[in-house]
Write a structure and sequence with these properties.
Number of helices of chain B: 19
Number of strands of chain B: 13
Largest sheet of chain A: 7 strands, antiparallel
Strand content of chain A: 15-25%
Structural class of chain A: alpha/beta
Helix content of chain B: 40-55%
Largest interface: A-B, 49 and 58 residues
Strand order of the largest sheet of chain B: 3-2-1-4-5-6-11
Largest sheet of chain B: 7 strands, parallel
Radius of gyration of chain A: 23 Å
Bound molecules: flavin-adenine dinucleotide, iron/sulfur cluster
Number of helices of chain A: 12
Structural class of chain B: alpha/beta
Shape of chain A: globular
Oligomer: heterodimer
Number of strands of chain A: 21
């Protein structure tokens, strides 16, 4: 029987859930804060043409308040979000307060959520990584394939297939830029050493970017504008799927609405969602048969905890928050020095490196981004030299520069948790986030960095001293694990189809239910899992 | 998209607003002013901005432009000293005419910038406020979708009120009219411009009257004492002057003698009416970013010493020297205008104010590209938080995104790898040399002024 489903959020998880249930004939009302993306600027132009053809290129790249400039006394990142992406992180008026310890969270209230700024890395988990999940790769595979068909994922069947299972609907890889090609060629010669000496394997990363036209979207035309927002929708963002939902007769999108909590009856069945209209401040009640939280792990957990607090005065603590620790390792490929750089190429990572570990769950995942288009300023100002010398080095070494981004797995631990606390406001509690890294993390980081540096050396690259950067927890934005799914129907957890064990008609379809966080970027799995829940629960 | 017309665009608030308007949001921005000054033109760094020379009392001079826009921001007004009927002509009659024309032309939204003085209970002799009150009435009756913004005391470079207040506050004995406990809530002109922009961007045209003040309230007496202390380093002696007799007396001579009077009778009204605001959504959304009273006073004093025009020349000179240092070229008009714009809109460049050594380094660095190199080398290692670094960083970002200079960062220097190696050695040598030199030349300056400021603090 067709149901009326109320979905909170319009991010990667929400839209794939919605597309699947709409296909099955259900009715969907989507509640979202939903800041809208700006219109793409001059779609036909490449990165460098923007500088020569726009009326005000500085305004476009740096913003009116020059917020696109990254100051060296800032946070140590190698790029800032451009003005065209600030809508992704703008909080709504009267947002909740946060009280964080050991964690620097990012949240989005945009149409399409955080993945409006993602870099598209899309990797299926294998059986070892799914060991703690209440299903295997075979169960999830059809949904990976369905999502791959919708999104368009390009990559290759290569040495990394030992870590990333291959699935249908994988598009051929994009054209490699010269530097990535050189690394791939060098790997072929150094393969024996890397595989046997360091258990390291190199291959194409899997990216949510079209290498050929698909559904009204164009294949990547190598404009180099990925960070500023792909003007041709070649790089997938969830707002594309939101557009498809909007074309569906059974779909209602309510934006500028801030979900607060659920009201439920004595049988623990939700009666309605309480929300606030951001247009006029009115409180509204949204009714439905089932309610689906897809507001991102932090916001979904908050809404769930706030509901229990309102309903029964129950203050709960959700343990098990996870995020991937990331290390940024800048490198220089000596063989590229003196060559011109390639502005007309795909900007993000095209190669990945996997490091095998004795326990396959501890696999280390690295993405390799060669430097093509990017703003030079953050890199130049991060060098410990005067700007003139740093600019000289940058321009001569530019084509040989790159960054390797190491991702480490994370597990659910009791001392990493979310809860609510008082704060200074009487109307809504604060979200408290507490994170402490595992004790053995420093050794793990050291060991991994050591291996990675040696691998890079084998690939003809050196790592400049002092420039490796350990990103703070929260920076990878792969949040998961606060309401884990399992076969055990314990309170504050979810069933294998991600149904809440506390409130009967509530489902979680974002990162909240993941019981383990492998090193691989999680969004592809979030989308596949959302499609799975849509299929199996409704 | 849409077009917008701004009256008083080259004025005190108008220029700040223009610097903030994103050209991408509008098809055209018509900037009405009585005359074009070279300085005001620098904010039109984009084809979308068009200057329109017009007289608000002569609708024919601007009517045509109204038909091309759907939003009007009405900033033009007389605020200083003038014969009383002049207030009514400009602040009321011109607004009336503008409203009639706007209605005829099909303008949709009207942002009227008024004054907090409209809400003073008794303003019989305060002609400026009376005229503004009547203008507000006309706006409300116009049938257009409108918002009325009522700023409190607006401070900032070239603030009209600043001169009058500092004259009073600098006196050895500061006269306080009335009991001095009247509360004010001054706002920085940039924060006012931000708030107006917020209204435009959020399309807040619901017929509301929105009061706009800064983040802090203070009594008039305390405010004047703070200004006095800023200039003389100590608290002032004050003399309380009963307000009513003074007003009665002055109002007799005001009409014939307005030119000679230091303050108008109307301005004295501010001494016995609170000029604070009712909180509202626009204030709430912007208050965290606003400058506090101390910061405003310090900035006003610094800028007074420098003079606004001199400040722009100084920025141009900085931009020229720094560009020569960074890319070995002269900046074009676009780069100069962007460097200036960054100084009025980027919070990173406006706060905190540079300390004395930082200021000295900025001055030294602007003299010659070689000196810029020394200051850059020194501060990169020993003073990474200095404003001079932010200035160089912003300029670097401007240069790499400007059509004339971006290729400098793209192309490797020609020549073989051996040549490159030689160049690297040369550059490393120069860097080491400039660092060593800067330690010798700038180190003592840094040390001395840190010592001086720490002894000052101890004292
Ligand atoms: C720079 C960057 C790069 C990334 N790169 C990758 C990558 O390469 N690969 C990868 O796998 N992942 C990547 N990620 C992570 C990825 O973006 C997230 O995993 C993904 O966006 C999570 O999707 P979600 O739908 O679960 O939640 P979100 O994206 O957080 O979406 C939440 C949605 O809920 C709405 N919402 C929240 N609270 C409320 C409320 N109270 N009321 C109403 N609506 C609400 C928001 O408006 C939003 O639409 C990256 C992230 C960033 C920031
Ligand atoms: S994916 Fe990137 S390179 Fe490809 S078309 Fe889009 S912006 Fe250009």
């Amino acid at each position: 029987m067709a149901q009326h489903l109320v979905v909170v959020g319009s991010g990667a998880s929400a839209v794939h859930f919605a597309l699947s249930v709409l296909e099955k004939g259900h009715k969907v009302t989507m509640i979202d804060v939903g800041h809208a993306p700006p219109q793409p600027v001059s779609p036909g132009l490449t990165f460098n043409e923007l500088k020569t053809k726009l009326d005000d290129p500085v305004g476009y790249f740096l913003g009116r308040r020059y917020e696109g400039v990254v100051h060296a006394d800032g946070d140590g990142e190698y790029y800032g979000f451009p003005p065209s992406k600030t809508y992704v992180f703008t909080p709504p008026d009267d947002d909740i307060d946060l009280n964080t310890t050991g964690f620097e969270p990012l949240r989005s209230f945009a149409q399409g959520g955080l993945a409006q700024t993602w870099t598209g890395g899309s990797y299926p988990l294998n059986d070892a990584e799914l060991a703690d999940y209440p299903f295997s790769y075979k169960d999830l595979q059809p949904y990976y394939e369905q999502v791959a068909r919708r999104v368009g994922i390009s990559g290759d069947d290569d040495d990394l297939s030992r870590f990333f299972p291959t699935h249908d609907h994988l598009l051929p890889g994009l054209e490699l830029d010269e530097h990535s090609q050189l690394l791939a060629d060098t790997y072929r010669n150094a393969k024996h050493k890397l595989n046997n000496g360091f258990h390291a394997y190199l291959g194409r990363s899997r990216i949510a970017t079209l290498s050929r036209d698909q559904d009204n979207r164009k294949a990547c035309s190598y404009t180099g504008r990925c960070l500023w927002g792909c003007p041709s929708q070649s790089l997938y963002t969830p707002s594309i799927s939101l557009g498809q939902c909007n074309n569906h007769p059974n779909f209602t999108y309510m934006s500028r609405v801030y979900a607060s909590h659920f009201v439920y009856d004595d049988h623990k069945q939700i009666k309605h969602l309480v929300a606030r209209s951001l247009a006029d401040g009115q409180v509204i009640e949204v009714k439905g048969d089932s309610f689906i939280l897809a507001a991102g792990t932090l916001c979904s957990s908050y809404i769930f905890m706030a509901s229990l607090l309102h309903g029964e005065g129950r203050l709960v603590r959700l343990p098990g928050l996870m995020d991937n620790r990331q290390l940024l390792v800048p490198f220089l490929n000596l063989a590229m020095i003196g060559k011109p750089f390639q502005p007309d190429s795909y900007q993000y990572h095209q190669l990945a490196m996997g490091i095998e570990t004795p326990d396959p769950k501890h696999y280390v995942h690295c993405q390799i981004t060669t430097l093509k288009t990017a703003l030079a300023q953050p890199i130049i100002t991060s060098m410990p030299l005067n700007l003139r010398t740093a600019s000289f080095l940058f321009r001569n070494l530019r084509s040989g520069l790159g960054i390797l981004n190491i991702n480490l797995h994370d597990t659910r631990r009791d001392d990493n948790f979310l809860t609510l606390d008082g704060g200074s406001r009487s109307d809504q509690p604060r979200l408290a986030i507490n994170y402490t890294p595992p004790h053995d993390e420093p050794q793990r980081l050291k060991r991994t960095l050591h291996t990675v540096k040696k691998c890079l050396w084998q690939l003809g690259c050196v790592v400049p001293p002092g420039m490796t950067y350990t990103r703070p927890m929260g920076a990878s934005v792969h949040y998961a694990g606060t309401i884990p799914m399992s076969d055990n129907p314990a309170p504050l957890t979810a069933s294998p189809t991600c149904r809440s064990n506390d409130l009967g008609n509530l489902y979680f379809v974002d990162g909240t239910t993941l019981p383990f966080l492998p090193a691989k970027n999680l969004t592809f799995t979030l989308m596949a899992n959302a499609a799975r829940v849509a299929d199996q629960a409704f | 998209m849409s077009a917008i017309l701004i009256t008083g665009a080259t004025g005190f608030v108008g220029r700040r607003l223009l610097a903030r308007i994103d050209p991408a949001s509008y098809d055209k921005v018509y900037c009405l002013g009585r005359h074009v000054s070279a300085a005001s033109l620098t904010v039109y760094n984009n084809d979308k901005f068009e200057h329109v020379t017009a007289d608000l009392l002569d609708p024919a001079s601007y009517a045509d432009y109204l038909s091309r826009v759907n939003t009007v921001v009405h900033l033009a007004a007389i605020t200083g000293k003038c014969p009383p009927d002049q207030y009514f002509r400009v602040n009321r009659d011109a607004t009336d005419l503008l409203l009639q024309q706007a209605k005829k032309a099909g303008v949709k939204r009207f942002l009227h910038v008024s004054t907090i003085a409209v809400k003073y209970p008794n303003k019989d002799l305060y002609y400026y406020a009376l005229a503004k009150e009547q203008a507000e009435y006309a706006v409300k009756q116009s049938g257009l979708s409108y918002t009325i913004a009522r700023p409190t005391i607006v401070l900032g470079p070239k603030s009209p009120i600043w001169d009058a207040l500092t004259k009073l506050a600098k006196l050895p004995v500061v006269p306080i009219f009335g009991h001095g406990q009247t509360r004010i809530q001054p706002i920085h002109v940039d924060d006012l411009a931000d708030s107006l922009l917020y209204i435009l961007e959020h399309d807040l045209f619901n017929g509301d009257t929105i009061e706009l003040g800064g983040p802090e309230q203070i009594t008039f007496e305390q405010f004047l004492s703070d200004i006095h202390r800023l200039y003389h380093g100590k608290d002032p002696r004050t003399l309380h002057i009963p307000l009513r007799p003074v007003i009665a007396l002055l109002s007799l001579v005001e009409r014939p003698l307005y030119k000679a009077m230091p303050l108008t009778v109307g301005q004295l009204c501010a001494f016995h009416n609170d000029s604070t605001i009712e909180p509202n959504a626009v204030f709430d959304a912007n208050k965290d970013r606003m400058l506090g009273i101390d910061q405003m006073l310090q900035q006003a004093k610094d800028q007074e010493q420098l003079g606004e025009h001199a400040r722009e020349n100084t920025l141009d000179q900085q931009c020229q020297t720094f560009t020569a240092y960074l890319v070995g070229a002269q900046p074009d008009g676009y780069i100069l205008s962007k460097y200036r714009q960054a100084h009025s809109t980027s919070p990173q460049l406006s706060e905190p104010l540079p300390c004395a050594t930082d200021q000295a380094f900025i001055t030294i660095a602007s003299k010659h590209p070689w000196l810029t190199r020394l200051v850059d080398s020194y501060t990169r290692i020993l003073a990474p938080h200095y404003i001079i670094r932010r200035k160089l960083t912003v300029l670097l970002a401007i240069l790499e995104t400007s059509p004339a200079t971006f290729r400098y960062f793209d192309l490797p220097d020609p020549g073989s790898k051996a040549m490159l190696l030689l160049r690297v050695i040369g550059n490393a040598f120069f860097f080491t040399l400039s660092l060593a030199l800067s330690l010798v030349v700038l180190g003592p300056i840094h040390l001395l002024s840190s010592l001086r400021s720490s002894t000052k603090r101890d004292a």
